[in-house]
Amino acid sequence: MSAGAVGLAMLTASCSSAPVDPVESASTVSEPARSNPVPAYDHVVVVVFENKPRRKVFRDAPYLAELADRGADLTRYFAVTHPSQPNYFALFSGRLRVRDDKCHDVRGRHLAGQLWANGLTFKAYSEGLPSAGSRVCADGRYRRKHAPWASFTSFRQKQHVPWDRFPSDFTRLPTVSFVIPDMCHDMHDCSVAVGSRWAKRNLDAYASWAVNHNSLLVVTFDEDDRSDDNHIFTVLVGDGIVPGNYRQRVTHYGLLRTLEEMHGLTPLGKAEEARVLHGLWG
Q: Which of 21, 79, 220, 230 is the most buried (most CB within 10 A)?
């Protein structure tokens, strides 16, 4: 299937006092038959940056723009709400769960628990985290609001470790890992250019390795700069990915659904209503 042969979808929003929580509509148009299903990757690394609209990333982040040329550029990817923290929960658990950026203790199912229950592995790497398993709300340039797993009472907190434990031997990576740069390198407090340089320095070796080792790099953002459309940059680079621009409308729920599909997991929450990414693999 060509990059352009994708369906349109609609954003839906809650009319209650709950946070805005759109999902991809599964009924707007019939989905094309998939000639190339989602592969089961040995390693998937998801990196989340902060609060920048897609257009600004392409203008000011040359390395991320380069990754878009090397991989699948999801041109119609949208975050689900504002502010930051609910978007992280949406991507990790299929639910917004919170409305704000304060520290919370939450219960419920999440991607890591699904992987562990199926004999697979998960680990999160947060830059600036003071120690493995720390549930501190803030420390230096680390913020728990960008690490949703730290708020789940059912999460194995020792699987949340400082960024400097990210292995140089990529075969030692878990099945799925999340990487969270600190408040400067994620572009929240520092410029897009600073974040782009951090990405090149820290992600390029894995991005190049993944292409030939049944692995995948996903780079996305939590939200844009609080616009109504919440249009953000998201790219996938890895083994079997056909480089190009892909116009399937997708949100964090669709990305979560795709990660679950890769590993035979049942969709969580609103990921069940979202479409799996398709047409990206050759």
A: 79
The set of residues, in sequence order, having a beta carbon less than 8 Å from that of 168 and lying 6+ positions away, is: none
Reading the chain (282 residues) residue by residue, the pLDDT tens digits are 444 443 333 333 333 333 444 444 332 222 333 446 899 999 999 999 999 999 999 999 999 999 999 999 999 999 999 999 999 999 999 999 999 999 999 999 999 999 999 999 999 999 999 999 999 999 999 999 999 999 999 999 999 999 999 999 999 999 999 999 999 999 999 999 999 999 999 999 999 999 999 999 999 999 999 999 999 999 999 999 999 999 999 999 999 999 999 999 999 999 999 999 999 998
The residue type at 100: D
pTM: 0.89
- Strand ranges of the sheet holding 215-221, from the earlier edge strand across to the other edge: 160-162, 122-126, 176-180, 43-49, 215-221, 235-238, 72-74, 244-246
Could you tell me which of 237, 202, 203, 207 has the C-alpha nearest to residue 73?
237
| Spatial distance between the Cα atoms of 253 and 267, rounded to a whole number of angstroms | 9
Exposed, middle or buried, 112 (CB in 10 Å: 0-12/13-18/19+)? buried
Burial status of residue 55 (CB atoms within 10 A of its CB: 0-12, 13-18, 19 or more): exposed
Cα distances (Å, whole numbers) of residue 104 to 79, 86, 101, 136, 151 = 21, 11, 9, 11, 6
Q: What angle do CA 248, 68, 49 make, to 5 degrees?
A: 90
d(CA 64, CA 58) in angstroms, rounded, equals: 7
Structural domains for the chain: 43-273 (3.40.720.10)
- H or E element: which one contains 112? helix 111-117
